Automatic annotation (TrEMBL):
Species of the source: Clavibacter michiganensis
Keyword Heme tagged: yes
This protein's name: Heme oxygenase 1
Pfam families: Heme_oxygenase
One Gene Ontology term of the molecular function aspect: heme binding
GO process annotations (BP): heme catabolic process; heme oxidation; response to oxidative stress
Amino acid sequence: MTVVSLTEALRDRARPRAEAQDADEFMTALVTGRGCRDDYVALVAQHYFVYRAIEAATGRMAANPVAARFISPRLTRLPAIEADLDFLVGPDWRDVVRPLASTAAYVERIEQVASVWVGGFIAHHYTRYLGDLSGGRLLRSLLQRQFGFDTNGVGLYLFAEIAEPRRFCSTYREALDQVPWDDDERARVVAEVENAYRLTTDVFAELARGRATAPLRRA
């Protein structure tokens, strides 16, 4: 019988959904000139709420020996996102940004599982950080070209302390395959990664539909 590694299972189960078309459209518009700066600001605002939840869970999971294999201060994104919003919106950004309904659902799920179930924590950690690390360099350069940014405004995608993102991701995946979960737990983790993908896609799809009107509200 062929034994499929956890990372292979995760890759094979990552299937596009109908909503993914809207999600792809939103990001494509951003980097090809059909999206505007406010669309990008709305995206960064939603990342703030998601990463705030994940990094709060990271602090609570840091003492867990399994979770600790994946936690690294080099991955921390929240200070960079806060600096991005300070640059993009202004010093009052905390009074301005609001989570979309899809973002609130995503955050709720992270809070439900990531602080109490190590597999759930790793599922959401893997989905967010490896996704942004794997494609972050290219996305950052496209956004810089499109909106004239230097490093301000795109700090989320600037992993300055990770010189070789590909090697970092490979090491992370190797560690994931070495976690001694049984088949049932592996299946739960795979299902939670799929859930994280779905929740992420829902955020992008709502951004595409709303075109940046909902997440920024000034009095």
